[in-house]
Amino acid sequence: MAYKIDIEKCVQCGACQANCPVDCIAEENGNYVIDADACVECGTCEANCPVGAASAE
Ligand code: SF4
Ligand code: SF4
Q1: For residue 1, with 0-12 CB atoms within 10 Å meaning exposed, 13-18 middle and 19 or more buried, which class applies?
Q2: By residue range, what is the domain housing residue 29?
Q3: Closest Cα to residue 17, out of 2, 5, 6?
Q4: Best mutation site among 4, 6, 8, 13 for ligand 2, i.e. most ligand atoms within 8 A of its Cβ?
Q5: Is-above-0.70 flag for pTM?
Q6: Is the CB of 13 inside a 6 Å radius of any atom of ligand 2?
Q7: CATH number, residue 42
Q8: Burial of 50 (C-beta count, 10 Å sphere; 0-12/13-18/19+)
Q9: Half-sphere exposure of 15 toward its Cβ, with a 13 Å CA cutoff?
Q10: What does the alpha-carbon distance between residue 29 and residue 52 come to, in Å, rounded to a whole number?
Q11: DSSP characters for 7-45?
Q12: How many whole angstroms from 42 Cα to the centroid of ligand 2?
C-alpha cells in the first residue's frame, strides 16, 4: 500500500508537498506525484489535502 494523488481531484495547492516529512512529493508541470518507494505512509498528505485528493490506495 502507498499513498497516491488523484490528479483529477487535485487543485495543486501544494499543501501535501509542504507537509510531507520525507519530502517524497514532487511537482512537475502542476502535477503532484508521490514517490511510492520513499513514502512512509504517515497520512499527513491526506490530512492536509483540502479536497481529498491524496489517499491510501
Ligand atoms: S503519506 Fe506521508 S510520507 Fe507518504 S506522501 Fe503522504 S505525507 Fe509523504
Ligand atoms: S494537498 Fe491535495 S489538492 Fe493540494 S497539491 Fe496536494 S493533492 Fe493536490
Answers
A1: exposed
A2: 3-56
A3: 5
A4: 13
A5: yes
A6: yes
A7: 3.30.70.20
A8: exposed
A9: 15
A10: 20
A11: TTT-----HHHHH-TT--EEEETTEEEE-TTT-----HH
A12: 15
User: Cα–chain-centroid distance for residue 39?
Assistant: 9
Cell numbers found for residue 36: 511510492
Q: Give the span between the Cα atoms of 4 and 46, in whole angstroms.
A: 9
Give how many domains the chain has, as a whole number.
Answer: 1
Ligand 2 lined by 15 (C-beta under 6 Å): yes
Instruction: Look up residue 41 and give its three cell numbers.
Output: 505512509
pLDDT tens sequence across 1-57 = 789 999 999 999 999 999 999 999 999 999 999 999 999 999 999 999 999 999 998
Which amino acid belongs to residue 19?
N
